[in-house]
Every structure is written in C-alpha cells, then in structure tokens.
Amino acid sequence: MQEEYRREEKIKEKTEMEKEIELIRSIIKTREELKSDNKNFEYAKEELIDYYTYQIKANQAKLDYLIKLAKLKGIEVDMINNKKYTFLGEEVG
C-alpha cells in the first residue's frame, strides 16, 4: 500500500504580542533553571561540579541574550520577577 502525501498547511506566523509573551516565558524559564543549577551546584560532588559549572555558564549566557532581546523590544525586564503573572488576561509563566 502506497502512502499518500499531503501538502502541509502553512504555519501561522506569530503576532508581535505572541512573540513577546514567548520571550517573557523563556526568560522566566531560564531564570528558574539557573536558580536550580546554582542550588544543585552547592551540593554537587566530584564530576557533577564540572557539569553544574557548565550548566550555570550556559544558562547565564542564554539569560543575558534573552534580556538583551527583551530590552531591544522595549520590554521592561525588571518587571519580570514573578514566575506567574497575567498578561492581558492570559497567565504567563
């Protein structure tokens, strides 16, 4: 039996607001990962010390990049402190 191939539907492009919400979510998620990495580093032993050092550096670089993007878009990063908050009726985080 031969499979039929269907043409994929065009992926809907995101609005600017959807992109900004996604950026905010990424910042919150990366901050939480960085906090977790720092806490795990405190209790790491032997080889895990190197692992968490790498994770901390990687997540810090990612967070710096995301914050830079947010500032370029005019998003006030200082306001992104809570893990969950609402944005125009939608829960973000």
Would you kindly provide a written description of the structure presented here, covering whatever features stand out?
- With 93 residues, the chain is mainly alpha-helical.
- It has a domain at 30-92.
- The protein is 58% helix and 6% strand.
- Helix 1 (16-43) packs antiparallel against helix 2.
- The longest helix is centred in the first third of the chain and has 28 residues, at 16-43.
Quick summary:
This protein has 93 residues and is mostly helical. It is built from 2 helices and 2 strands.
Helix and strand layout, with pairings?
Layout: H1 16-43, H2 47-72, E1 85-87, E2 90-92
Antiparallel strand pairs: 1-2
Helix pairs in contact: 1-2
Low-confidence stretches: 82-93
Please give the alpha-carbon distance between the first and last residues: 46 Å
Helix fraction, binned, reads 55-70%
Shape: flat
| Category from helices, strands and their pairing | mainly alpha
Q: Name the strands of the widest sheet in spatial order.
A: 1-2
The amount of beta strand, in percent, is 5-15%
- What's the count of strands? 2
Rg, nearest Å: 19 Å
Task: Write down the secondary-structure element order.
Answer: HHEE
What integer is the average pLDDT? 80
Main β sheet profile? 2 strands, antiparallel
Helical segment tally?
2
